[in-house]
């Protein structure tokens, strides 16, 4: 695995901490800004909406720009968004800062995922994505609980300052470890990449990803009040339980990344099924502290066990356009991260209680399970994605419709040769 892929994973740590840390900060933000907890929860949806919109737009806008320069610019903008959030005097400005940060985060995910995928052979895609998602898992293990801890003792704004500092460290890592990547002789075609949206398997993959992610985060977004108001835990326990969720995420990512390349649909089906069961049990037993804590860990395992397979599936069905495939995956996950918290907030506003968010999440994951079974059936009957094999194109063949992966990972210390047909400009 090229060192550059691990650098991208470290950068994702900062992005993931910002994206998910509000799950442990909703009560103090709601109190400080004078809004309800469901309205404070919309800040999570705001970030997700920015990711949904920003991922495809920035992927297209930066398609012909140098990859390294793009990544550096986006992590810088993201860090500035954290500073703006830390200084925001009102809910409206905090909301706007979340959208701006999300746009930068979306662009980084889209470009970074395409870079990571292009640097490894086709049979290591899930592993490469597992490294990036591993940064997200570590963010849940360390970053999100640390944010909740800072919010508990030094105010929620200190968590935003901490993420800004982490973004600065990530910027240094990108400058030092990501090599300059020259543009290819043949400019990438936006029109050619957009043709992936003609494939119904792409749309099914989007729906499965959105529903699988949204189901878990429908409950996770309101985990802090569920733990305190339903399970009866002291608020000081919230950072530790969030850390336990993150530990489960790290375990799930590690296992899922190792087996997804060989058993893609098996990982998707078993992972989504497990999430459905855990959500239903949380809805029933959430008032018991031990059960709520244990299920938080198990949900982290099941959700992130599935994530590498969901990422790899999108790149498989949209192999002719890996840049937009990465953007589409990012948008799909954050459609779920938008719809999940919104649905959870709607359930709470309807007076059904915090435990009902788990029932709503289970309904989303059941739907994702059905669509996964449909995609598997299409795939087996040859009515799914294009059957063009990703390994048939040669590096110099410009007539190939999909990029040829390297037989061995490219050295991280040197740029890949220009003129290759890979999705990432300048990389094979």
The count of DSSP E runs of length 2 or more, i.e. the number of strands, is: 0
Could you list the spans in which at least 5 consecutive residues all have pLDDT below 50?
384-428
Largest sheet entry: none
Assembly of the depicted chains = single chain
Mean of the pLDDT scores?
78
Shape: globular
Report the helical percentage: over 70%
Percent of residues in beta strands? under 5%
- How large, in whole angstroms, is the Cα Rg? 20 Å
The rounded distance between the terminal residues' Cα atoms is 15 Å
Which structural class should the secondary elements be placed in? mainly alpha
Order of helices and strands: HHHHHHHHHHHHHHH
Number of helices: 15
What features would you describe in this structure?
With 428 residues, this protein is mainly alpha-helical. Helices cover 73% and strands 0% of the residues. It has 15 helices and no strands. α5 runs antiparallel to α14, α6 runs antiparallel to α11 and α9 packs across α14. It starts with a helix and ends in a 48-residue tail after the last helix. 62% of the residues are buried. The C terminus is likely disordered.
Quick overview of this protein structure:
The chain is mainly α. The chain contains 15 helices and no strands.
Q: Keywords, please?
A:
single chain
SSE topology sketch:
Blueprint: H1 3-20, H2 26-33, H3 37-61, H4 67-87, H5 91-118, H6 125-154, H7 156-177, H8 190-194, H9 200-220, H10 223-230, H11 238-259, H12 264-285, H13 289-317, H14 322-349, H15 356-380
Helix pairs in contact: 1-5, 1-6, 1-7, 2-3, 3-5, 3-14, 4-5, 4-7, 5-14, 6-7, 6-11, 6-13, 9-12, 9-13, 9-14, 9-15, 11-13, 12-13, 12-15, 13-14, 14-15
